[in-house]
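Appendix B, Record 12. Input sequence as logged:
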Amino acid sequence: MCSGYEVDFKALNRDIFGKEPEDPLLGNYLNFYIGHSNEYHIRYNSASGGLVTQLLIFALEEGIIDGALVTKMRKDKPLEPEPFVARTKKEIIDASKSKYCPVPANIAIKEILDSKEGERFAVVGLPCHIHGIRKAEKINKKLREKVVLHLGLLCSINRNFLSQDYLFKKFNVKKEEVIKLDYRGKGWIGGMTIALNDGTEKYSPLPIYWTQILRQYFVPFRCTLCSDQSSELADLSFGDIWLPEFRDDKIGTSLIISRTKTGDKILNEMKFKNKVNLKKIERYKVVESQSYPLKFKKEYLDARITLLKLFRKRTPIYNQKLLKPNIITYLHALLIYSQIFFSSKKYFWWLLEPFGNLLDKISKIKQKIH
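Logged structural output:
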């Protein structure tokens, strides 16, 4: 079941969709949409548009599912994620927003397997979580019958738990002072809120803490070897719509890729019942909105794999065609692994900010040249 060692994309695509994908970037698909929840508080308090939260609530209320595998931050340990099976609207809402840290979502599969006969479930996860669940379903008929909906989240990279320590250091916060951590929320693009035990809060917009502070530091090693940005094995995939025309959107709009008839039917039933606003878009808009993440996962991956093999490191086995790398992608690979190494050692943290500033200056010079 482990997705870290091997993911046979060709076989899984044939099992799930009945065919191998013709699109090397996005996999099998039926339609592309943009949309958002028509409930303002759900839309505003989600990562982007509230579509996943709204869809789970709809599926629960319509009897399509009896629960959903989702993730929230633990109340007793607010810096740790807690995968669980939500069975009420409130529990689903409690699990909204992104969690930018390692999440062992598949541990909640046992709860699904131990559920009552006839109960059905949705699962929400990153591409790696969906890979593991789809592989598990191939060898476990009971799980295959119980999981009727797979909702995938678009993902470029994640962050390890050292990133929390670094952020708290930058914001002058002690771990024991934190009573709640929201990685994302308060509209779009939104930001991170750290609630402290003295009643105060620290807030940082997403572009500040994600791009300017964390940059490409604290990336889990396995994330650099993933070839799936858009959750290609899900029924429906969801993510941010990073396009110029949405820059003034302060509440949130989701990008949706429908891949199966089951997922597409639920989306359009929600639209018919006025639960969501939904509009079709063209493929090129999806690729444009996910330009760098798709390059990182699809164009740059083979260079990273080749580089690691030179150092006799183990890499995953994918039965999947990867795009050919060029010299720039090899330089990018060296840069990524350098950043991962330096951020993994606390005694090097004093170098991270000046090194990042140097990269910014180099990037500006390159832009001027071009």
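The first helix runs from residue 9 to 17.
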